Amino acid sequence: MIRKRIIPVALIDQGGRTLTSQQFCPWRTVGTVAQSVQLNSLRGADELVVYDIAASRNNRLIAPEMINKIRKFCDAPLTIGGGICSKDSAKSYIQSGADKVSKSICGDHDLTLISKISSMLGSQSVVAQINYMRDETGITIVDYLGGRKFKWSLNRIIIELERSGVGEIILCCVSKDGSQSGFDEAILPQLNDVKIGVPVLLMGGAGNPGDFVNVLGNAPVQGALGSSVFAFSEHTPRSVRSICRGAGIKVRDVGPHR
Amino acid sequence: MIHIVNIPSANIVSVGACLRRINIRWELLTATTELVPGSDAILIPGVGAFDVGATEIECENLDMVIRQFATKGGLIVGICLGCQLLLGSSEEAPASTGLGLLPGVVRRLPDEIEDRVPRIGWAPTHCFVPCPISDGTMPRAIFDELNGHDVYFCHSYYCDVPDEHKIMGFRHAEKKLPAVIGRDNILGFQFHPELSGSVGSRLLACVFGETR
Predict the structure, then answer these.
(1) Is A2's CB within 8 Å of B48's CB?
(2) Using one digit for the tens of pLDDT, what is the confidence trace for A74-100?
(3) What is the ipTM metric for this complex?
(4) Which residues in B lie closer than 8 A to residue A223 (C-beta atoms)?
(5) Which residues does chain B have within 8 Å of residue A89's beta carbon, measured at their own beta carbons?
(6) Inter-chain contact A199–B116, Cβ cutoff 8 Å?
(7) How far apart are CA B127 and CA B104, in angstroms?
(8) Do A120 and B122 touch (CB under 8 A)?
(9) What is the pTM of this model?
(10) N or C: where does chain A have the smaller number of CB atoms within 10 Å of the terminal CB?
(11) A41 dihedral zone (left: phi>0; alpha: psi -120 to 50; beta)
């Protein structure tokens, strides 16, 4: 069986500074992207995700030189997101050094785009991110660009995304972003009900290894992303993995070579 | 020198970065490149849909270059989509034709609750016994070394080849499916050695060892 993945995520701005955010607002600069991906790569990340958080807002792409530079410092599988607005922009990210591309879903039009990208790159290289807020009444899907609530339910978006040929879905709980208070575990029963076929990754709230243990034991959850936990705590992807292994979760065995 | 086939949707920079780390020189393959078996090798990289890759290779007339080099005994290595393109056809795009350097058909991975498709992430690979590769033609020892190690996969399809071309396998939906396929001078990796950490780099260094 495929191993569960521990995935550091680096949020960057146009200049390549790495930031952490709280509820999607940039909060603190924690270094440079080269430093961040190199450290996490060395510290045994199973994959790395890098998002340019201002690219889509400013209608620009991530510069090829920036992706090239990130690739140079990273020998782990690399997903790049931010600014993707067409099939060609997704292709250009792969050509510049990414292995997969990620697109936040902000409206129906993004489903059409996902389908175009996956027919070119193959499903396996196309990741869709769904951003949602949680309050006492339940969850609301949000379009982080327009600040609007999405009219569709989570189930409907997931079904439509699978139909569009998406390869993987990141469920990002914006209410948890930067809180380090644990992933949104309340989403887990719903995931089992929807019967998602593609791998699901969770994002938002990772603060310590126990948070990863709590979600990775669930069948649909194939991986979990963390940003602040790797920037502000003593934990590394390797130490988190080792604690997950101790808890009986099947994670990568790096072997004697490393 | 390694000559990488320029499939626009492929992660060429990613493969190139790995080759550079292990001090292997590479350039892009063109229809006019003069290739010498023994000192040159062709690498067909991954990422992309089967029809996109197949069309691109044909458009640039690279299919003839690759087939001729294979006939002369030149080393041809495919990664992920590149591995699948070594076969003649794929369920992903029934109207498209692959290189046909190995017999078999590319099939969609069976869907299972525990084994999701696309199949993305790290998983162990194990040797098929007996190893179908004869001593001397391929660095067999590297496959013994790779046996049991976790490597990085990212695919929805797999190469269904006859037993004599199955070198290493992975478990999926209670079956052992091919992770490494080949014969003599043709070698395909369904996983991504370039993304598989030090064990993957050692694999590539060993496979391309004589063509630096």
Answers:
(1) no
(2) 999 999 999 999 999 999 999 999 999
(3) 0.94
(4) 121
(5) none
(6) yes
(7) 19
(8) no
(9) 0.95
(10) C
(11) alpha
